[in-house]
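Researcher: Quick one. two chains, 686 residues in total.
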Amino acid sequence: MLEIRNLKASVEGKEILKGINLKVNAGEIHAIMGPNGSGKSTLASVLAGKQDYTVTDGEILFEGKNLLDMKIEERAHEGIFLAFQYPVEIPGVSTVNFLKTAVNETRKAKGLAPIEAKDFLATMREKMKLVEMDSKLTSRALNEGFSGGEKKRNEVFQMAMLEPKLAILDETDSGLDIDALRIVAHGVNTLRNKNNAFIVITHYQRLLDYIVPDFVHVLSDGKIVKSGTKDLAFELEEKGYDWVKEETINS
Amino acid sequence: MSKQVLDIPVLNKKLFAQMQTLAQNPLRDSSWKNFLQSGFPSVKHEEWRFTPLENSLKKIQKVSSPDFVSLSDDAEKIIASLEPIDAYRIILVNGKPISNSVKISDEISLLSLKEAQKNFPEIIKEHFGKYLTTEKETFNALNTALTNDGVFIHLKKNSQTEKPIHIISVHDNREEGIYSTSRILIVAEEGAKAHIVETHISTAEKFSLQNLGAEIIVKPNARIEYHLIQHFSLLGKSEASVIDSRQVVLEKDSFCNFTTVSMSGALIRNNLHMLFNAQNGEGHLYGLYLPSKNELIDNHSLVDHAMPNCFSNEFYKGIMTENGKGVFNGKIMVRKDAQKTNAYQNNRNLLLSDDAGLNAKPQLEIFADDVKCSHGATSGQLDEDAMFYLRARGIGEFEAKKLLTLAFAEDVLVQTKHEGLHNQIDKWIEEKLSF
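Model:
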């Protein structure tokens, strides 16, 4: 589904990603772990198309298409979804209106007619249950005044509404208490199937107790320095990131 | 001759000739003298620095005669679509009402100013020209000198309108270069309540200039919701322009919420003055202006706290596109006696193009010592993080801009408190952004 080849990216002349290689197939969950500043969030932003980053080398293929040639919204239409680490507060735009626009813009890109109002509401009600989201939140301005947990649940709720092929969860666990973490994980686990894939970016192993990955990669200084199964996450938790760094140097 | 004054003798002659056709009275006479003394301001005049009038004034070919002008088909078409649909409507063409009166109730009168002079001579005598000062205010002076007709609304004590009153002013510019005069006088007696909407439209692309003067007197305990809407390019780009000077007077315990929405116009200058003339008045001034290609929208407001214990809140937002120019000049005056004044002002601007421009000048003049006042002005572009967030959800760049721009306008538009009107303005903004 996704193939990243020797991806290098910089921001304001400073190289952050220094040659990433990663292959994600449908039905898989990949966890990307790593210390702060290793480039985890940059990778997520580059995949989603944030313009602050300049890709200096390498390529990203999504279902065989060159992702780097696509605009931000085109990537979303192709089925890429980024759950933001810091969801943006947008006063004046209600969550309902925003989601309806998002759903319809995606449908338009696929040549489909706008969704019927009653179908939209029915779907919304169903998906809201999935993340136990209060219906009052959807009539409020997008993320405005939401608690940290509410924002993250809203991200997973949007993911459920848009049904992406590849979802990238950028530190979705940060700032979540255990109950919210469980709800978010339940959402993801319910949505996973053999046709979609997830990249779960996290600093801690904790989230991976709830969203069990098929593969774990360790990102350090802009490169994937170690890959393995979920056991790697436990090892990291135990030995810390320095262990991987030292191992990399020693090898 | 001072450089602060423009010298356009041809125009002065036309204006004088027009005045000669009207019934003479001392007020007209003194106003004309005041006009001659002040003259038309150039950009050297401090209050007109960013609003050049010379080109516009030189385009004036005809000073509109008070003869009846019929509604064009285009005007009828626009009027039929205007919100609020369910309202008591009075329609003006180039400043003159096309009917003498509109029946509302025994307690509420909606008349042409001319008709009102016959029916309400005392009220007119008491209020007309009392607050819209003609000294050193050229356009007020000229307006008062040339006023022949307009709108008069009188609300008796404790009366209340069931539906909004809608003044629809058609700037008929089928002929090139028409200058017109219009005047509004509204008197809300003690405890009266009303929702008044005033919409200005034009019918063709040609140049016209209207000088509009308005006095709105809100007596003790009365409450007025007022919405002024200026949208001259509803049927395609229009050169219609307006200089709108109005004085709101708030008496004891009264309330006024005045919202100005300037959608389009070659040159719009709004001189909105609100005077707190007694204690415990509450006034809100909301504004939204959207100058686009070759348009200039200038809001010059004065909030005059003359008496203690009053509250004012001014909140204006601008959305500038293409080479549109916005001016915001907001002055809060707190006079010596106006202790315990609360006065707030905020001006925020969105520049959606590199060619767009904005001049903001907040002014506070405080002569009392126990007051709470604040002001602030900002201008910027759409938030990039918000744009990225929306686009990452599949919303195209254009749609995302539209959503964020409407969201920016929302906290002013929510003041319309009328769903139909609110939706109509939302729709207009969308149309304006898709040029």
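Residues 389-435 of chain B form one domain.
Researcher: Thanks, that's what I needed.
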